[in-house]
Amino acid sequence: MPQIPQTLHELTVGQLSARSGAAVSALHFYESKGLITSRRTSGNQRRYTRDALRRVAFVRAAQRVGIPLATIREALAELPEERTPNRDDWARLSRAWRSELDDRIRQLGRLRDHLTDCIGCGCLSLENCVLSNPDDISGESMAGSRLMPERHARECS
Q1: Is 76 strand, coil or helix?
Q2: What is the pLDDT confidence band of residue 138, given thresholds at 50, 70 and 90?
Q3: 122-136 burial code (b ≥16 CB/10 A, e <16)
Q4: Which residues of 79-109 are buried (b: 16+ CB within 10 A; e: fewer)?
């Protein structure tokens, strides 16, 4: 059976950009961060395998929901190198982020529920403001923007 030339399975950076909707500069950035890889031709041009399309789509979707690039890179490193990732591979990665996304949804709900009070107040008090300092323990014992009162007292003496 004749082999299909490698070049038919590869995309130029322009083709990857057009197909994925990501700017060429974004693709170069993703590559510099280890999110996608390319090989170089003898003319030093980038060539991407077709599975880069799914990886770029995954990166962009993860970014839209606020997943940091370092976390995305760690997840992509778990994908198989020897084959194109399948639906089960992508589902496994997505499940791993479910609790993190649930936490963000709770935080956004809290932001939505307290935004009017906070803007109306304007104080951003560590004692009372759940937006500027959520889950603050020190705010129960003191107010203001002091983070380390003991250190501040020593520096002033």
Answers
A1: helix
A2: low
A3: eeebbeebebebeee
A4: beeeeebeeebbeebeeebeeeeeeeeeeee
Is the per-residue pLDDT at 146 higher than 80? no
Helices (H), ranges, the chain: 13-20, 24-32, 52-64, 69-77, 87-96, 98-121, 149-156
- Name the DSSP letter for residue 4: P
- Residue 88 CA, chain-centre distance (Å), reads 21
pTM over 0.85: no
Which is more confidently placed, 53 or 110? 53
Q: What is the pLDDT of residues 26-63, one digit of tens each?
A: 999 999 999 999 999 999 999 999 889 988 998 998 89
Secondary structure element (H or E) that encloses residue 10, with its range: strand 10-11
Q: By three-state DSSP, how is residue 40 classified?
A: strand
